Every structure is written in structure tokens, then in C-alpha cells.
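REVIEWER CHECKLIST
Item 1: Sequence provided? yes
Item 2: Single chain? yes
Item 3: Sequence as submitted:
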Amino acid sequence: MEPGVKRKGPLGLAKQLDVLVKPQPVEYSQVLSQSSLFTSLFKSQIVTTFVRWDAFYFVHIAEEGYIYEQEYAFFPMLPFLMKGISATDHKSILVLSGIIISNVSFALATATLYHLSYSIFKKERFALISALCFCFTPSCMFMSSMYTESLFALLTFVGMDLYIHRWFWSAAIVWSFSTLTRSNGVVYVGFFIFDLCIKNRSSSAVVYMTQVLKAMALSLVTFLGMASFQMYGYLNYCANTSQPRPWCQARIPLLYSFVQEEYWNCGLFRYYEWKQLPNFLLAAPMVLLSFCGIWSYAAHDLLRFFSVGILKATREEALLPFIYLWGVLLVYCTLAMHIQVITRFFSCMPTVYWFAAHLLAQDTDNSKRKRVASQIVLFYFITYGLVGIVLFSNFFPPA
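Item 4: Structure as written out by the authors:
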């Protein structure tokens, strides 16, 4: 059957994909190649432990490409790298490639976060604690398994480091690759808008318009990764078929938005059901930590914070766009996403680790309240991470 024909009936074909997404580790291990040296070294008990939840999709995409409509919820960068490194269709090698990519990316992301933190705060100890907090992130189980979190965190931190040093075009290119890894990379255009259109406003109309045009161009570069992937989906389901899908007729035909709503029930307040209460409880620690971190920063200068830095600030503005990013994504996660994924969704947020480091690195202020807060954060990071490993490997939420 031709690929184009396969794609025409995604709803009917959804059941055929169940074997890839249902918790069947034993059956999956049986299809691993028995002739590979890697397979003999990494038998099913080790390899398939990393293949849980979304990882099944990444393996299938790396092996066969995008066949089913719902697979377009998962972006191509990780499967593309898995395929490129393994140079084979053997599932065992593809899985090992994905694991290697995630763990190498995790190590590189840790080093990049240290450099980013030091570039902003100029405090070596604070940068080191921030990097260590990232190593013990509550979503550590996803950072070492075949997920996009580590790769996306690496691209995010590299882009932010380039942005801090004002290498805007390089940052835009790196973030463009991040939008080929996860969709939320598109929000990084806010850094360019903040810096060129708000922070460094010029009294000259000509100069200001030049800055606005530059911000628009940088934003287009950042959007390029996701836009190309959406165009690929549009060509498959709308342009090169006699039976286009319903979303093709939308004013802005975005396959990703349709897939998230149709197959994953994502959307404003869609997750607000009583049966989802346990998932809200799982997400509560990260939601509370984020709210406290944002408020802790904003409370030092509320006028500056709520005026988007336009009014005179009493502190450095370097952190302001990072805090705004944190706040925007916090609102989005709590209102329109599967709330339990916020822990791994925020694994790429340096502000999470900066706030944790702020609480843990108390050089002069030894108040009881801050000591208790730092102990709670440390307990949350370690305990949630350890419990999460057990839950993840046994197909339990959060995922």
C-alpha cells in the first residue's frame, strides 16, 4: 500500500497503532533484533525499560516515518537523529540511539546551563548549584529515556546563552531546530520582541522600525523549523490527496493544533474534570514552585514587572524575559494542557533551577522560613525524581 493511501484513513487506522502505545513491554522486546551485538548486551529487561509512553511513537517514526495522523503530535528532530545515528531499521539499535542522544544531550545541557547561569549572575557557586539542580530535576526519568526533553533543553539553553551574549541570529537558528523538537520552542521569539521592541526602544522612528523589522526577521527564522514540519503535514493531507482532512479547510490549517485537540484532548479547560484531580495533585508541586518563583522576583519591583520593564527598574532587567516566559507557560500549562506533564514540560526552564538555587544557596540569610523552603524543594526534587522512575518504568503517570 502506498504511503499516501495509508494516510487517508487515520481514524480507522488508529487501532493499528495501539500495539505501539499500549503497555506491552514483553511483546515489544520480542521484536528486537537477535543478531545484533548491542541486543546481546542490552537485553529486553534493560532496553525496553526506556521505551514507555511517547517513546513508542518516536521508535515507530524513526523506523517507518509518519504514517498515522496522530503521530504528528511528535516532532521529527529526535527520530531523525535516531535514524541518522543508527543507520538501520533494527528497533534495538534505534532504541539505543535514542537513549544515547538523550543522555549525551542531558550532559551537554547541564554544562550549558552552568555557562548560561554564570553569564547572567556572575556567581560561580550559584551557577554550579543551578546545574546540580538540573541534574536532579524532578523529571529526571524523562531526561535519560527516549524522550525529547534532554535534546530540547540543550537547544533551549544554547539559544538562551547565545541570546544573552547578543548573538541573536545564531540564537534564532538554534531555536529553529528546537521548534523541530518540540512545539513550545516558538515562544522564544518573545526574547527578540522584548529586547528589540521593548527594552531597547529608540527615540528615532527610523531606528525603532529597523529594530522591529529585525525582531520580525528573527522570529521568522525561529518559526522556520515548526513551519516546515506543518507544511510537510499539509502537503501529505491536503495538497497531495483527493480526500483532504477537515482541518485543511481551516483559516490557518495547522495539523499540530488539530491533532492535539482530536487525539489528545488538549484545549482550554478541556482537562478540568473531576477524574483528572489526581493529575492536578501530581502537578501541584511544580505549579506552586513556579508561582512562588515568579512572585519572588516580581515582588521586588511590581511596577517594573507589570509595566513590562518600561517604567524605571530598580534591578537588572536580564531576568525579566525569562520570568515572563515562565509565567506565560505556567498559565498555558494549567489551562490548556494535560496538567501532569508540567514537570517535564518545565525541565527546559532555567528559572526553575535558578529559583531552587536561590533557595539552596543561602549565604547570609539563614532565616528559618528560607531554610524550610530550601529543604522542601530539595526533598521534592529528589523524591519526585526517584518515585517517577518507578512509575514511568511501569507505565504509570505522570507521562
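Item 5: Key structural point noted by reviewer: The first helix runs from residue 3 to 6.
Item 6: Recommendation: ____
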